[in-house]
Structure formats: structure tokens, C-alpha cells
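User: Can you help me understand a structure? I only have the sequence.
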Amino acid sequence: MTAEGTPADPEPPQADPAPPPGRRGVVGPFSARQLLLAGGVVAAVAVALVLLTRPIAPAPGTGIPTALPGATPYLVGSPSTGLQVGQLAPELAWTGPDGSPVQLTDLDGNPVALADLRGKLVWLNFWATWCPPCQGETPVLRDMDEVYGDRGLEIIAVAVQETSVDNVRDYADRYELRYTIAFDASADVFNLYRVYALPTQVFVGPDGVIRQVVNGPLTDATARGWIESLLPTGSPGGPGTSGDPAPSGQPPS
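Assistant: Let's start by predicting it. Here is the structure, written out as C-alpha cells:
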């Protein structure tokens, strides 16, 4: 009411406040930041899946990786002519930097010598814990040792290019390996036998002569074929013979 007593004009109605400007996203309601974040999550998941499903390869300075066995030899050098069937197998020894003789030893430091194994079939297996086909072959060696270890077969697995004795020992304990494992710290025996692929198998007869060389992993069946054909005559493992070996690269039937 005004001072003169007349009613005042009513105030005009207030308009509703203007709505806030809409947020325009790059795709619908999603901002560029949200899309980048989602894309990063998808990419991370994809990378993780690739790492979990691809075959492993050795990583410098690392320990024992998860086993994802391959089916072919792991090349560690250029293919070359190695030791031949019929040659006398070199002793597992070499000359040290100071000119003194050095003998290959097992994981406990005990010497491993072919001269001590005359009369037995010796299976030299050059391998590494980080080598996928070697990992896949490990159960084969373990099984052959259990079956033929007291029938004239001596397995010597020569570990090469390893970071430490403890890594190899952990691997052997994990898979309950009871055959002899030697540690070729400086790859001296590896080079002496002219190995270029892992695993490489060298079968040495009871007379110390090389009977067979196989570049690559053996299956249970092929390992049995070689062993039973090469065991010393009269061994309880089967109709073995110490005579001529089978044709190179072909396991006996």
C-alpha cells in the first residue's frame, strides 16, 4: 500500500532461471577425457592378454619364467657342423685362463666326467631353464631317468647360459629332477660340443663314442626309441645293441 493508502501494484512475476548450458560430449554424453580413460583400460587389458598367451623368451638378468613349451629348437647361434657320430666324445673338461685343467661339476660342485661312466649309455642334454622347448622336454628326461636309470642309462643335463646355480637348483627341485644336472657357467662344454640349438642331445655309447646327435627336443616315444636301441648289449632295458647307430636324425622304429 502506498503512502496515500492506495494498494501498490503487485511485483511482476520472476522468470525461472535460465537452465545451465548443456555439456556437449565428444561422443554422446562422454567427454574426451572419459573416452581416453576407457581406451587406456581396454589397451591395458589387451596387452596383458598378449603377455599371458605368447610364448616366452629369455629375459637378461631374470630368473626362471613360466613354462610355455615350444615345439622347435631354440637357436642360440648360427647352424654349423657339430660333432659327428663315430667320434670320441670330448671329455667334459677344459683349460682355464691360468692354464690349469677345469672339470665340469654338478649343482653341488661334484665333478662330472665321462671317463667315470664307461660301460653306460650317456645322454648329454644341453638345455636351459628359460628355453621353452627345453621346458617342454623336461618331463621326458624325468620319465626316461625313472624307467632306464637303473638299466644302464646315465642322463647328464648340461645347463648353459644361466644366471646362477640357485636358479637351476630351484627348477630341479620344483620338477623333482633326480638325474645329474651340471652347470656350464662359462659355456665351455657348450662350445666344446659346438652346440647351436637348445635342447641338443648327444648320446655317448658305453665305449665313449658318439652314437647319435639330435638338435631339438625329444618326445617320449623318440627318446625311448633311441635309448632302447643304444643301451649296452645285455642291459635289462630291452634288446639294446652297442653296434652301429641308426641313420642320423631318424629314431629307430
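Now, to help you interpret it: Residues 44-70, 239-248 have pLDDT under 50 and may be disordered. The domain at 74-93+104-230 is CATH 3.40.30.10 (Glutaredoxin). Let me know which part you'd like to focus on.
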